[in-house]
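During the no-cost extension, the postdoctoral fellow (Dr. R.K.) reprocessed legacy sequence entries with the updated structure-token encoder. One reprocessed record is reproduced below for audit purposes.
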Amino acid sequence: MPVDVLSRNNVKVMGQGQRPLVMAHGFGCDQKMWRFVAPAFAADYRLVLFDYVGFGQSDLATYDPLRYSHLQGYAQDVLEICAALELEQAIFVGHSVSSMIGLLAAIAAPERFERLVMIGPSPCYINEDAYVGGFERQDIDQLLDIMEKNYIGWAHFLAPVVMQNADRPQLTQELEESFCSTDPAIATRFARATFYGDNRDDLARAPVPSLILQCKDDAIAPTEVGRYLHQHLPHSTLALMEATGHCPHMSHPDETVQRIKTYLEAASLGSAYG
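Re-encoded structure tokens follow.
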């Protein structure tokens, strides 16, 4: 029996516009994390939200450990959603690891995408020679070891590091609860694909323009990573945000919306008059 992609990924379509805008959540999250920014685009776009298999309200029965042991498996999810909805020239907004998932999807099927918006992206999290990814390999090894041995403790430790913004503890609590609601084996496999992944060689192959939203104080994707991406992604725009932490769409939604809208409006004018 063919897989019902829209049910598998808990796809939700909303908005009054015609131009498709796809929002893809980050590691350990789900589509609810977009609730502070999505309404701002509903009047002008056809919004597509979804959960990766293994997260949120996706169909766990369709989870394939082999497929989802690397980011290409999640990129295939994106492409199958686009095919099911017959999306072309979509704007893809990806948080964190979804930025690279979106890039892989665009490389595989450039006709599906018009632009990529990357929130807190990183092509490689591990420091190597002159490249600054933010973590030493032993740091990642230890983090994943803790994840496998004490998943709840790992979630309790990592959530405040990712979210920051200690003045709003409810956001950290929500992120921790999101981590804890995920099957530990699925989360660990996704974490390995994320933190051991290296997409630096894929950057030059980007077929469409991109916006890089870089928070000024991000423990997961430091400023050096944003600058590296800007240097190696063709036709990219780097926006240094006032927002802090790794989830500005939750902690600083107004600035996140404004940055994305400003970019898309300028891009639209460029298409009209360029």
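DSSP finds ten helices and seven strands in the chain. The first strand starts at residue 12 and ends at 14. The remaining legacy entries will be reprocessed before the final report is submitted.
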